[in-house]
Each structure stands twice: as C-alpha cells, then as structure tokens.
Amino acid sequence: MTVLSENAAALLHAGDSVTEADGKLVGGKAIGLARLLGTGARVPEWSVVTVEAFDAHLRSGPLPELYRAVSAATTDPERAEAATALRRAIAETPVDAELTEAVAEFMRDRGPIAVRSSAVGEDGADRSYAGIFESYLFRTDAEQVLDAIRLCWASAFSARALHYRGAVETAAPEVAVILQDMADGTVSGVMFTGNPVTGRMDEALISACWGLGEGIVSGACATDEFVLSHGGSELATRIADKDLEFVRDATGGVREQPIDGDRRTRRCLTPEQTARLVLEGVRIATALGGPQDIEWTLRDGETVVLQTRPITAAATAADPAALGTWRAVWDNSNIQESFNGVTSPLTFSWAARVYEVIFTETLRMIGVRAPVIAAHDQVLRNMVGLVSGRVYYNIENWYRVLSLAPYFQRNKEDVERMIGVENPVDFIEGIHPSVRDRLVRLPQLLPVVAVLGWRMANRAALVDRFQREVGAEVDRIRRAQATATDLRELLELADQGLRLFGRWSVQMINDLYLSNQAGRARRLLAQDGTPASEEVVARLLASEEAVESLQPTVILMRLAGRIRADAALREAVFTGDPRTGYDAVRAASPAVRQVLDDYIELYGDRCMGEQKLETVSLRQDPSFIATVLRNYVNDSGIDADELERSHRVRQEQFEREVLDTLAAARRTRLVAVLRRARRAVRDRERVRLTRTRIIGVGRSVYLRIGELLAAAGQLDAPGHVFYLTMEEIQAFAEGRSMTSDLGALARTRIAEFARYELVEPPNQFETTGPPSLAVDTAVPDAAVADSDTLRGTGCWPGIVEGQVQIVMSPEDDLDVTGKILTTRRTDPGWGPLFPSVKGLLIERGSTLSHSAVLARELGIPAVVGVPGLMSIVRDGERVRLDGGSGVVERLDRAGES
C-alpha cells in the first residue's frame, strides 16, 4: 500500500481510512468501496480525491461565473450552451498546486489506475446515477490522471447528468474522484444477486464477456448470461456469439479487439466459475444487508470485485397491486408448438391480429350479431398475450368469446378441454341455458344451423376452393413482394397476407366436422356405456396426420438413398459447411436440383419455429436440408420404403386390436366414420400447410421492409425489424409514430428479449394486475433437479441408452444420428430430424402432441412432458430412456454417486 505524506493524505483519502461518516466528503461510490472492503472482498487498492477539491476547482478562474450561467438558464437550449462552456473550462483550468503534488506522489512507482467519479448520492439504494458520470482506464502517469480528474468533474455538467439530476434533485453537484489500481482481467462482467428480470431474490443473474468490463458498461460487447440459484446451481444459460472484446491499449486507455476462433461461441465462464461468483456475491450481499449489483473481473483465475451498488428500490420494491388487481389466467398448453420459446414483438403483433381476424369471422359465421361482435372488440384483440416474451392464451377471453355462440352450452370441464387447458381454472363457471332461454334463441339459431349444415355438406369442396384461391393469392403476393421497392406498397402486401386469415372459417368448419366424427367414434367404441378415451380415437386418426407430416421426411429419405448410391453426389453433399454442401449437390445433378427446387417450393416455409416471422426459413437458408441429408446418407438403415411399410403395419395392427373388440354392425359403422374423419384430417393438414405458406410470405414481406428501413438508416440491420410491431411500422410510414428513432427502439427491445431467454415462465399462471409485473418463473424443484431419475409420459415403448443432444434451434448442432434428441418442445418442422435419432426426450407435450405422434409412427422410444427437463439435463450426458414407462435414468450421475 502506498504511504502518502501528510499534505497529500489530506487531499487523497486512502480507501481503508474511509468510513460511513465520510459520505458528504467522498461520495457514494467511495462509500460503496469502503463497505465492500469491510466484507473482506478482494478489491484493488484505491484512494479518493475529496469533494472539497472539486468545490475549490469550481471557485478558480472563470468557473464561478460560468457555473452561475448554468444555474440561471431558464430554457433547455440556453442551459445546454452554458453547460458546454463550463465543461470546457473545467477541463482546461489548471488544478491547484497541492493536488498536483499529491497526485504526483500517489502515482510514483505505481502501475496503471482507473479514474472514476464518486458523486454524493451516487450508487445509493434509491438511485444509482449509473452511466451518468465518466470513467477513464489505464492512466499511467500523473499528467494523465490529472486530466482524467478534470474530465470526471466536467461530466457532472453533461446533458445526461443535468437531466438526471434535474429529475431527482435541485442541489448543486458534489463530485469526488476515485483513483484505483487497474485489474487487467481476462473475463469481466456484472452480477445481480437478485434477478432483475424476474424479480426473484433467490436467483442471481451474471452477464459476462471476454476482456475488460468496459465492453459491458458501454453495451458494445455481446455477453453470456447465466441465471443461478443462490446455492450456485445453474438454472439457465445463454451463450452469445462474442465477436468483440475490450483490452488494454499500449498507448493508454482501452481498445476494441475482434475475437476469433471458437472463443466466440465458447462460454467465457465455466459452471464452477459461475458457482464461485454467485457464492461470493451472495456472501457480499448478505454482509451488506441487501441485493447488490456487482462489477467484477477474473484476474489470474481469481475474482476481483471492482465495485458494488445496491439494486435500486424500483427494481425490488415494485407493487403490482398499485396498478390494479384484476385477475387473469394465462396458459400456453395448446399454443406451445405454434410459438415455441421467446417470440419477437413483430410475430406477436401479427399473431394477435390473426386471432382477432379468425374469431371475428367465426362469430359472424355462427350468427352472432354485428353489434355484439363490436361490443367485444377489446376481448377479440386480446385472445393472446405476451408474457416474458412467450405467447399465452388469455383463458378468460377465450371463454367469453365461446360463450357468445347462440347455441353455447358447456360444462366448465368441456370449455377447458376445448381450449386445451391442462389445469382447471377456478373462476370460470359453466353456462347452462334454461328451456325458456333456448326457445328465445331458437329464431336466431335456425339460420345458423342452416348455414352450418350447408357448409358441412360442402366441406370438401370449400377446402379445395380455399386451397386453390388462397394458394394463388400467396403466390401473387410473393411475386409482388419480389419487385416492390416502396414501404407503403410492402405494408399493403403484408396486410393482404394477413387478411387471408379472414377465410380461415373453412378450417373451423373442417375442425367442427372432425370433432363431430371423432365424437361418433368415441361413442361407437364405448364399453359399458363409457366412451373410449380421447387418446384411442386420436391414435386411430393420428396416423393420417403423421402421413401428411412425414411427407417432407419421406422425400428427403428417397433423395438421400439416391445420393448414398452415387459417389459423386455423396462427395458433393459433404462438401464444406451444410450450405456449401447443399449448393454443391444441387449443382451436381439436374435431377437432384429438380427435387430440391420442388421441395423448397412446397415446403420452403416448413421449418423449426415456422409460425414465427423471425425464424430463418428454408427459402432463406436451406442448410437444414443438407444437414438432414448428411444424417440420412450416413445411416444406411434409413429407408423410405421401409418407413412407409412399418408405418402401415403398425397402424393396421392397432386398428385390428381396436376393431376386434366390436360387434360386426358397430365395426362397420366405425370404419365408415373413420374414413370420413381421416379425410377431414388430410384436409386439416393441407390447410395447415397453406397457413404456413401465408406466414412465409408475411416473413418475406417484413424482411424486405427491414432491408428498406436499414438502407434508410432507420435500423441497424434488416433483422431488427422483428423487434418492432406491425402497428409501429405502419405508424412510422403514415406519420403517426410516437418516435422517430426506430433503431433505438429496436435496440432496447433486443436487450430486453435477450434477457427473456434466461427465464422459463410456467405453463399456466394467474396474475392480478399487469401480468408482466406478477409472473413468476418456473424453477425446477431442487430435489427433482438433483435426482438421478426423471419421469414424464411414455409415448412409444422401448428402452435405449445414449448421449443427450440438446437442440433448441437450427443454429445448434443437428448431427443427431444415434443420439437422444432433447429439447423443450417441437413443431412439424422438426420432423426430418427424427428418423436419425435413438430416442426423443421432450420437456413439454402430451401423448397427442406432434412429437409423440411422429415418435409412434416412426417407432422411436420417446418420453414427453418431463417437468423442468431443460434446467436439469446437460448436453452430452448419458441417459437410459424407457419410452413405455416414461422413466429416464441419468447414468453419468448414477455412476458418480
């Protein structure tokens, strides 16, 4: 520790001599460092230039008059001009001789230091002043330090500081300056000992990057994010593509440096390091009496704590009840396969409008009067909600819409089954119209019954018409989009695509018809007056769904067989990365090119996360196709003919087992019902594929809009358009926008939605008041997370052992051959991956979900519905999966114990 002379010590207070009573003299950041030292944390040595030195400087030369001009200013432009003059003068006015001598003595035989402001009130529990004042790093001599001190003082009169201070106080600024030894770390970051995203005070959130912490403070560096329990167990991780780090510049200060190689995508902290960080953070927070926002760096593998501040009151003491206490139930049980994971603002605004259009048209179709529909406009606009970045059904609003039907009569349980709710909702009640009510409604009901009857009778022709006309409209919009160069023209095309969902009543009729036939099948299969389970009927019909869903897979299987048999094609498909391999095999054979082009034309919008506009489709990047082809080519056991044969055998065997339990007459009737129901299933899958194409053309239009906005300097990149809403883009084009800086709005949303990736809200929850203030996160029970055995729902019998391969998106490693594919949820776009895997392990879903249906048809042992799975298993660990019982044993952990 440097020992200063008596004169120097009077101006530069050593950090270990600062006490709580010195707050008015040394400022909030210095008091925070003194408290931090008191906890025993490893803190770089520091001293502080007192507020008195700042006050003395303001009394020298022309500064008093300039300061009075700032105080006397009555308008913002006048104040800004006066403040600019004052800042310039503060930086140019020489520091008095005593402080100059003290700093020279302090820097003698010393390494580089950081110079940071410490304003009175800074880093307090009720306000932080974060980012308001300046810091200067790697100052190496007395002259550099004195310049930095003056610049810290001048920053008290920056536009940001004046605005912030004007919002919270009226007193003159009081600024001390900290001089602290630099810690040249290899990994740096920020740790919140209470999770600011979820409000959970038993979780910690770590943001970390390679190099110095300036990359995080400035927002220039992408960061890895880790959520941990206070015991050190990782609950969630998000590993960023870290293309940039800040390092020491040999000439002074810091500089940006590109990151090359695997460091870009490698986590910068090991699980052991995150655990040590959190344990140290919790220890510090406990000693200081409340949750902390801690800046740290790793130097030579050791944690060095640079500073800490209390998490401000606004982050921990919010009272949602202050805004209201209305109740709402949110459930995503039946929507998770459509909008999996975090969903962008643009997609949500599109989805909310789609649901409004569909249900408005459906209510008209079933005879609800126009004034009644208009009176429920707010309900129809809020059929879905976005909570923590996830799409949820607003259950109460669904019930309200269903209750508008003139013939509506439902038990509470029927309503919840129709919506797909997993758990009962206590404040929804059944509706049971009396005989008088039914008679009153009869005149209104008869025309509806007539219209529905006609549409039911002509269902097949209506579906064919929908396919023909809507398909043609999709093609027309796609052609128009390819040549559009005007923002308003593109927005009109997007609206035309959206309006196609106004014809979705065809699918509603088809679903109603299918539901009717399935109900007949259940009654025909009744034993002792008890209808057959929904699962039995669903399995009788699901084979038809699987046949349609497997068509893309079968096409790629047949193509892989052709490639496997041709050495030149095989070499081509394995050329370079998957995109290069796709281009090479396409160029190697006209026949292969035709197959691939036809595939893209028909299934180019069918991809993982296909209902989300931000998803990169196969039309944009066909790399997924090449990866699947490589998987298939390397597995000689994959055979399209055998797949179809085994599928047919399994289905025939299951049907035979079911039909053999029935008398001849009932069996004949059931076969006829199943034939009609299966036609409806085929039509449903055809219409769903057309829906995927509508979404695909919407994706293309908005990507083009993003390109135009980026070219005009309104967005940093075309893909940032997904962080705006449809309404915001439209308002910008029409002169109604509340902001002219779309880029800043998108950047704010990007940061917010990145944090949503770190939490996983429950499948269903109830809120009072605004849901974003009340939602909790789904954290697995500690006993479950530490268990060697997990349990879910078995979907297809068979016991397999293998390595877990976690796949969350197309950007992950998709070479899943012989692995147990593990993920949170799936949709039809995942289908081509399934034939290569040894088993399926899915956190969400049921025996009737898409992954379960395909697993049965492909004969893959599968377990779905495993609570908290993705917070428990680790990529690469070995498990034994029993697809019959739903039991999963974690073999690596068992071996360790």
What does this 3D model show about the protein?
- The chain has 897 residues and is of the alpha+beta class.
- The chain is 48% helix and 15% strand.
- It contains 33 helices and 25 strands.
- The strands form 5 sheets. The protein has an 8-stranded mixed sheet.
- A hairpin with a 4-residue loop joins strand 24 (878-882) and strand 25.
- 43% of the residues are buried.
Strands, helices and their partners?
Elements: H1 6-11, E1 12-14, H2 23-38, E2 46-49, H3 51-58, H4 63-72, H5 76-92, H6 97-107, E3 113-119, E4 135-139, H7 142-154, H8 159-168, E5 175-181, E6 187-192, E7 203-210, H9 214-217, E8 224-229, E9 234-238, E10 244-248, E11 254-258, H10 271-288, E12 292-299, E13 302-310, H11 313-316, E14 327-331, H12 345-365, H13 370-375, H14 377-381, E15 384-387, E16 390-394, H15 395-402, H16 412-419, H17 435-457, H18 459-483, H19 487-499, H20 505-524, H21 534-549, H22 551-564, H23 567-573, H24 578-588, H25 590-603, H26 623-633, H27 640-659, H28 664-711, H29 726-734, H30 742-756, E17 764-768, H31 782-785, E18 789-791, E19 793-796, E20 799-806, E21 820-823, E22 839-842, H32 850-858, E23 862-864, E24 878-882, E25 887-890, H33 891-896
